[in-house]
Amino acid sequence: MSNYHIKHLEEYFQVYRKSVRNPESFWEEVAEEHFLWRKKWDKVLDWDFSKPEIKWFQGAKLNITENCIDRHLHVRGDKTAILFEPNDPKEEAEHITYRQLHERVSKFANVLKEKGIKKGDRVIIYLPMIPELAISVLACARIGAIHSVVFAGFSSTALATRVNDCEAKMVITSDGSYRGSKSIDLKGIVDDALEQCKTVDKVLVAKRINSDISMKEGRDEWLQPLLDAAYGDCVPEVMDAEDPLFILYTSGSTGRPKGMLHTTGGYMVYTAYTFKNVFQYKEEDVYWCTADIGWITGHSYIVYGPLANGATTVMFEGVPSYPDYGRFWEIVEKHKVNQFYTAPTAIRALAKENIDFVTKYNLDSLKVLGTVGEPINEEAWHWYNDHIGMKQSPIVDTWWQTETGGILISPIPFSTPTKPTYATLPLPGIQPVLMDENGNEIKGNPADGRLCIKFPWPSIARTIWGNHQRYKDTYFSAFENKYFTGDGALRDEVGYYRITGRVDDVIIVSGHNLGTAPIEDAVNEHPAVAESAIVGFPHDIKGNALYGYVILKETGEVRNRENLRKEINQQISDKIGPIAKLDKIQFTPGLPKTRSGKIMRRILRKIASNDTGNLGDTSTLLNPEVVEQIMKEVIK
Ligand code: WTA
Question: Considering only CA atoms, which residue is closest to atom 5 of ligand 1?
Fold first, then answer.
């Protein structure tokens, strides 16, 4: 029996039991047998959720890029590591072998060093899905710099907040990006952002769209000439297992984004382990995850997990609708993709289109289908199963978070029987529990509660950059000695988990986590706005969409409502990004508040969702009359 590669259900149960009975020896075996360490650990695990402090493989030395690149060179140097599929299908795909990746990462790492980046420095990467994105991530890891990738759909203000929060020394960007038929001026966004930042002294610019951009003397440099001149080998920095690898920002219930910090050894072991098992990757397979590397899914399951397993990982620059809605399936056919991993929102959007976009292509290569990012509804699950998997390819509904680093609950394909909308069983090493509102664990099945994890796993985030107290408050204070996920879940008769959604003020729109507080802040900054409240409501394609209740200032001035709506959304686009725009905006004279002044979002959510049959207890409301009025004017 191999702990590392589970091949049938009985084996899963055995491995799982072992991983819970003795987690240290379980992870030690996995780490020992499958990775390259410069020095072994002194201790496998040290943890205390009350502090909270978590350390895996303390004392071990390694470099993650040696594991993701160098050690493959003699066995699969000529195998494609990254298969880049450009936005425009007429542009040729690029196959980057492990050997080429080694050279390109080394050159990039040498450029970083030459530009003064050292171990522990923060580098912000703001790039589209082009090879330079993966390469710059790996180049940072090569020299021990901490990368922080910011999704290239975020606005200049959002970018500036992140640059300032981690006090980055450098930004890596491009002259622009392609997205379907559009192109975006990324460099202009960086220039705007850096007006508000003091720590960045270098900006490296990759060429992608050949646009005529302005370069700031002394700060900005084109990347390519630097790479051309750089040496093609770079000795990897020897890192401690607990040295930081990256910071990735995620939305929270309050204003500032949280810079989740992941460290090196445990993250590597866990992402590699889960990649192997959840996708059942085999040596000749081509694996494709459609996420952007700007999100955790891209970090763990486009870059680190696949490369640590010597896989061929596809990087797609474009969007599912360009040049038409058949693009995903065209790529699957063209590259004979074996494992395909995407988000429910993409599935729902594609399921609405003519089925000819699917049937035109040969999808026989597919073996495993994955979903991530939000609950998958039954209809989408069946469409995926029937039309893409042809009822042959198991669907792995993978539940996890930026904070967890890797997949925690998921079927193991060909082993775990799947069940629509259920993420099913915890992976080895993961000990989920459901808690009731009084803080008690709900034992027995079925059950419905708040999802917590009671034992650490190797890739759990170690802190929030610069704010350990917030880390403790957010994840370890709601339930004693447990990591609280912020999600609600059901557990069925056989112990399968179904994640039902967030129980906090985070709303998942098209698979993107959005905190309501930062959006409300952006809306409130509009000069005409006095106050606002934002809630989610169900949406066919996006899963959830945003509904804003806005109180205007009483200035006596009558403004055109449609123009105001546009301005408010523009304000959100500028402060956060277009992904956070409101679908519906209702102007209202008041918001339902409790006597202590708290907005009753529960009621607003129900009204926005057109679910007003039972509004629940409204007796604590200060102003019940406003509820009637809001209901009358609700936007359907
Ligand atoms: C949600 C993405 C249901 C959940 C990897 C979680 C899911 C949040 C699933 C994290 C799933 C993710 N089923 N809900 N399979 N996967 N979620 O940080 O609410 O972008 O807390 O990480 O997405 O989103 P994040």
Answer: 401
552 assigned to some structural domain: yes
| Cis before 89? omega within 30 | no
Residue whose CB lies within 8 A of the most ligand 1 atoms, among 403, 513, 542, 579, for a mutation test: 513
pLDDT confidence of residue 53? 98
547 CA distance to ligand 1 middle (Å):
21
Please say whether the beta carbons of 548 and 569 come within 8 A: no
Cα distance between residue 590 and residue 146, in whole Å = 46
Measured distance between the N- and C-terminal CA atoms of the chain, rounded to whole angstroms: 57
> Per residue in 265-288, pLDDT tens?
999 999 999 999 999 999 999 999
- Indicate which atom in ligand 1 lies nearest the CA of residue 506: 19
Query: Considering only CA atoms, which residue is closest to atom 12 of ligand 1?
Result: 373
Quote the pLDDT of residue 50: 97
Give per-residue pLDDT as tens, 12-38: 999 999 999 999 999 999 999 999 999
Closest atom, ligand 1, to C-alpha of 401 = 22
Q: Rounded to an integer, what distance in angstroms lies between the CA atom of residue 30 and that of residue 114?
A: 37
Condensed to tens digits (0 to 9), the pLDDT of residues 402-421 reads: 999 999 999 999 999 999 99
Give the integer Cα–Cα distance in Å for 128 and 186.
Answer: 9
Ligand 1 atom having least distance to the Cα of 402:
18
For the cut 80, the answer to whether the pLDDT of residue 151 exceeds it is yes
pLDDT of the residue at 43: 98
| Strands of 529-539's sheet in order across | 529-539, 543-552, 584-587
Structure tokens at 274: 């889960």
Is residue 81 exposed (0-12), middle (13-18) or buried (19+ Cβ within 10 Å)? Answer: buried
Distance 171 CA to ligand 1 centre (A): 28
Using pLDDT thresholds of 50, 70 and 90, give the confidence band for residue 388: very high
Of ligand 1's listed atoms, the one at least distance from the Cα of 410 is 15
* Residue 159 pLDDT: 97
Ligand 1 contact via 260 beta carbon (within 6 Å): no
Residue 612 confidence class, pLDDT cut points 50, 70, 90: confident
pLDDT score of 618 more than 90: no
pLDDT of residue 620: 76
For the Cβ of 513 lying below 6 angstroms from any atom of ligand 1, the answer is: yes
Domain count within the chain: 1
CA distance 156 to 5: 44
| Whether 122 contacts 248, CB under 8 Å | no
Is residue 306 in some structural domain? no
What is the distance in A from the centroid of ligand 1 to the CA of 505? 14
For residue 193, is it within any domain? no
**DSSP E strands: which ranges in 426-565?**
432-435, 447-453, 463-464, 483-491, 497-502, 506-509, 512-515, 529-539, 543-552
CATH number at residue 531: 3.30.300.30
Tokens at 546, concatenated: 């945003």
| Pair 497, 423: CB distance under 8 Å | yes
Structural domain of 581 = 506-633
Tell me the HSE value of 158 on the side-chain side, using a 13 A CA sphere.
29
If you search the block for the tokens 């763990």, which residue do you land on?
300
Predicted confidence at residue 1, as pLDDT, reads 59
Q: Is residue 618 part of a domain?
A: yes
Q: What is the pLDDT of residues 199-212, one digit of tens each?
A: 999 999 999 999 99
